Amino acid sequence: MREIKAADITAAVAQMCMSANTKLPADVRKKFEEGHKNETTEAGKEIFRQLLENADLAFETKLPLCQDCGLAIFYVELGEDVFVPGGVNKAITEGMVAGYKDGFLRKSSCDPLTRKNTGDNTPAIIHIDLVPGDKLKISYMAKGGGSENMSRVTMLSPSQGWEGIKKFVVQRVAEAGPNPCPPVILGIGIGGTFEYAPKIAKQALLRKLDDVHPDPKVAAMEEELLTAVNKLGIGPMGLGGSYTCLAVKIALAPCHIASLPLAVNVQCHSARHEEVEF
Amino acid sequence: MPTYTLNTPLTDADIEKLRAGDVVLLNGIIYSGRDAAHKKLMDLLDAGKPLPFELKGASIYYVGPSPAPPGRPIGSAGPTTSYRMDAYAPRLHALGLKASIGKGKRSDEVKKAMQEHKAVYFGATGGAGALLSKCITASKVIAFDDLGPEAIREMTVKDFPLLVINDAFGGELYAKPKLDD
Ligand code: SF4
Fold first, then answer.
1. Do A254 and A191 form a contact (C-beta atoms < 8 A)?
2. In 10 A of CB B180, how many CB atoms?
3. Chain A contact for B127, CB < 8 A?
4. Does A79 share its domain with A176?
């Protein structure tokens, strides 16, 4: 058994929350620069210019990139030979609470019915996967409400196949229009079950924007969806243009012979995530 | 693209010269308000009680800012998605609200109310909260403090950069998605 101190996890998670909310990931920044150069509409170019300036300012001043610092989502790969006295969940939650407090990040969690703010952004949404070995990896994603509200899960019929999937995704982005702060990033979960498809869809958003899926068939599907969605012409902030979507990331999982679950997680351009390993 | 520098409170004359696509640099006092605050405003109206600010000529900014760090008037302060306030906006426009500021589409009811009551919908750049906060020079909570980020704040803005998304004549700036079928 390898022991990892809860206090170390808490400190690292707090730091990660503050850093991810003020520092735009390099791959996202690269896409903004590309968009600023290549976007076909002046209004779209101007949005990219503002987003780059916003990123610089956030980094300098440590003001959050976006006021919606999101619900805090964590994906944990916990080695089966790791022991955390006090518990991993508690260590992560305490780190999140400290990070949101000390980083002056917005607390956006509330009771679903009374709408009373929980005050400290709890609960952290923590997904733990047990893996072999004695390592611990924690990925954090700040997920805003505006883009999350535009996400959908549907249960297609197997007969609808790839064409049905494509149609649903394009339709979803078209209906969302300017609402989720385009240019968006799409996490697509195909297969699994009613609860598993959206899990892998969102998790796919942890991938780098410019990575290429190891399976060439899936890589081609991602390209095909990206092209189809960008044909919509919604553009940055819905003002028109060729950059409606920066990247499509697909995750596949086997499903029931009767089903074709599909989840579309819409992520906004403020795609904040970081990871830490122990 | 025409650019106007306007001061709040906004007048009918201000609104009448604006068209979808115009750039507006807004100056003066605006009020923050989003989901929970709107609900409370409706409760006050239903009870026949006064609102915490003068609605005539007012501009409401759909924003829930992040906490102000020491030495700054406000934290990050970009717009939230506006459709969630569609249920409330027509009533407020009828009572004199001249502008709302947010991001994303509005309902037909809101667009109709803006034409009837001479009002506009401005878009601010979503996800540019750090940048937009530079134009907010002062901010204080004036109502519903218990709502935290959703409290109503009186904000002073200087050359706050906006785009007219919906004007008072039925004009709209957003690109229509190009769908084959
Ligand atoms: S959708 Fe994203 S960028 Fe837009 S306001 Fe929400 S968190 Fe911020």
1. yes
2. 7
3. yes
4. no
Residue B172 covered by a domain: no
Residue B159 to residues B21, B136, B156: CA-CA distances in angstroms?
Answer: 17, 9, 10
In this structure, are residues A76 and A136 in contact, taking their beta carbons and an 8 Å threshold?
yes
CA-based nearest distance B59→chain A, Å: 20
Q: The CATH number of the domain where A176 resides is what?
A: 3.30.1330
B140 near B153, Cβ under 8 Å? yes
Contact A107 B148 (CB under 8 A): yes
Over its length of 278 residues, how does chain A's per-residue pLDDT go in tens digits? 999 999 999 999 999 999 999 999 999 999 999 999 999 999 999 999 999 999 999 999 999 999 999 999 999 999 999 999 999 999 999 999 999 999 999 999 999 999 999 999 999 999 999 999 999 999 999 999 999 999 999 999 999 999 999 999 999 999 999 999 999 999 999 999 999 999 999 999 999 999 999 999 999 999 999 999 999 999 999 999 999 999 999 999 999 999 999 999 999 999 999 999 99
